[in-house]
Amino acid sequence: MSSFELKKILGNLLMPLPLLFILVLIGLLLLTLKQKKTGLLFFIPSIITLFLLSLPIVTQQLIDSTENKYTIFDTNKHKKLHYILVLGCQIKPHKNRPANSQLGACSLSRLVEGLRIARKYPQAKLIVSGFGYDGTTSSELMKKTAYSLGLHHTRILTNPKAKDTAQEAKLLAYRLVDAKVALVTSAAHMSRSIDLFNQQGIDVIAAPTDFYALNLQPLWRQFIPNAEAFLAITAHQHEILGTLWIKVLRLYDPESL
Q1: pTM of the prediction?
Q2: Among 54, 76, 189, 217, who pairs with 225 as Cys (CB 3.0-4.6 Å)?
């Protein structure tokens, strides 16, 4: 198992849902071992937290400042772009399905925003980035989808070897330094992405997408447990851990990321 895979496994275990379920199971185990006080100390807070984080009205309050930190890309404010960089996200490889059906929701959201901007800047190149698995990469699937939706193949560049955002910034630095670049990624992911690209000397213009906007649902729905609330809090928890990891690495080597 590579260090990258180990990092991903540990990171996923620290996401709200698996972490809270582990705490619930520890509580139940302690209760069966007749350690009632300690068991309840694990079990009750974990159950309450699970319930609260499943409520859109609670989760939106936790993610609101991050999700609304950057405004959408306004094509009227930028006269020229050289590149539109779309960062990779979830994929669902399946050889019998078209490329767009193999892209996860966040990948599709990012690509659509990239294509929206590309239509306004016909001279700009679209860079689709991201690694993958099962012989399929996020960048290749996004390239095929963009082409099928009408973007000429000469305008599409790929970056298929980057396994995470830090690698995306390093691998693309030679091309993007001193260029005008719109960076397209999920709103939750934008702050960390800008930091990593700036570290490589790349000045990017934020083009956030993939907003959760749970507070825009009807009010009554915001008080009902919802799976989307967990998706939102998980995405933001991932960014918190990612940012902490970067800070730790930079303590030992400021140039590492």
Answers
A1: 0.93
A2: 54
